[in-house]
Design brief:
4 helices, two-stranded antiparallel sheet
Length: about 180
């Protein structure tokens, strides 16, 4: 088997040889899916960890490699106050942000996901944009409602301008954490 990493994309890309017909063949590249309804991978919510982390289960390339709990997913371009960081206190608005994520995509609900350039964070969580069953981006909804800040995780910048605009709107309207913390 020929194994090569393509660091320029920030995403480990594996070139496989000798796969069965209809699968990946020599020279095939596994890229992150791009925005668009048919290109998003589908999955189900297993559980919510906090306001910006959840576990999803699916059978595609992004969500199919998870363990018994599914795949740990970190929502791209948002950051919510901590509730489960070891050795850290629960931060202002953390429980509310966790509850908001659970309201948007409760366990067992259907979602679709979209990757950007870099697929994993330093904690081996999969970095994704998550969309609810109606097609609304959960990451953006969290920022718009004031449950999260917009944060750029370079090189993943596909939706950062929308996130920053939503944060500015939430701050100006003093929604969520912007009025409580």
């Amino acid at each position: 088997m020929d194994l090569r990493w393509v660091p320029a994309t920030g995403l480990a890309v594996v070139l496989l040889g000798g796969c069965a017909e209809g699968g990946l063949g020599a020279g095939s590249v596994v890229d992150a899916p791009r925005e668009g309804g048919d290109e998003r991978e589908r999955g189900r919510v297993v559980r919510i960890v906090d306001g910006d982390t959840l576990y999803l289960r699916g059978d595609g390339e992004l969500l199919g490699a998870g363990g018994a709990d599914g795949t740990a997913v970190r929502l791209l371009q948002i950051d919510t106050p901590e509730t489960v960081a070891p050795g850290s206190p629960v931060e202002c608005w953390g429980p509310e942000a966790s509850d908001a994520l659970a309201d948007l995509v409760p366990p067992a609900s259907s979602v679709s996901v979209e990757a950007d350039e870099e697929l994993l964070d330093p904690y081996d969580r999969t970095l994704l944009y998550v969309y609810d069953a109606g097609g609304d981006m959960v990451n953006l909804a969290m920022v718009r409602a004031g449950h999260a800040e917009a944060v750029l995780f370079e090189p993943n910048d596909r939706h950062i301008e929308r996130m920053r605009a939503a944060e500015a709107e939430a701050r100006d309207a003093r929604r969520g954490l912007w009025s409580a913390c």
